[in-house]
Design a protein that fits this description.
It is built from eight helices and six strands. The protein is an alpha/beta fold.
Length: 209
């Protein structure tokens, strides 16, 4: 087994995170919810779930419908956007791996929109720490071995691999891996990170790591 295997020790700390956003535009839509959990010794530890306050929040009808967005709940619980970003990025910097579903194709862009909206620079400084469960699943279902020497390049290739035969949504994967989460509860970042963490653990076994 190569020493570059990013999954060689699941006892190491890693973050699983997810965002809910105003819409699907990667360059303008901001996150209004960010949830993350810090895993240690293969188990979920500290759990963070934050609503992010924007005075001019402009969430699309589609996003409202999909996530069950409730403005009163949001207004009551939302926190300062800079404060939440600082908390999130502190954990990101302290963990060797960052896990998410479609994190390379979506959430990394959304986090940078979050930064820009606060007058901070965009960056991908932590990109080599990302593990994308969507990319892993597309590789698994295509029977393509993971490239432990070039994990980022392999994942980016898998993100762009599209075929109708592959069923790799979070909803499809909780069924495939028999994960006890109600499909109707998905599209809430706090629920999605629990599902993604369990999906990742199952995928790591399949990849024989």
């Amino acid at each position: 087994m190569t020493t570059n295997n990013p999954f060689k020790d699941l006892r190491k700390k890693f973050i699983v995170f997810d965002t809910e956003t105003e819409g699907t535009n990667l360059f303008t839509n901001r996150p209004w919810q960010c949830a993350w959990s810090v895993y240690e010794n293969g188990h979920m530890g500290r759990f963070e779930n934050h609503y992010i306050w924007w005075d001019d929040l402009n969430i699309s009808k589609g996003a409202k419908r999909q996530t069950g967005f409730n403005y009163q709940e949001y207004k009551q619980n939302a926190e300062d956007a800079s404060t939440v970003l600082d908390l999130f990025e502190k954990d990101v910097k302290q963990c060797p791996f960052i896990v998410g579903h479609n994190v390379l194709g979506f959430d990394t862009m959304i986090v940078n929109t979050w930064r820009r909206s606060l007058g901070r620079r965009s960056h991908f400084d932590d990109i080599n720490k990302y593990i994308d469960t969507l990319a892993l699943e597309r590789g698994i279902q295509s029977d393509l071995p993971f490239d432990f020497e070039n994990p980022l390049a392999w994942q980016l290739k898998m993100i762009n691999l599209r075929t109708r035969k592959i069923k790799a949504t979070v909803a499809a994967l909780i069924k495939k891996y028999n994960i006890s989460i109600d499909e109707g509860a998905l599209h809430d970042a706090a629920i999605d990170i629990v599902a993604t963490g369990e999906i990742f653990k199952q995928q790591s076994y399949i990849l024989e790591v």
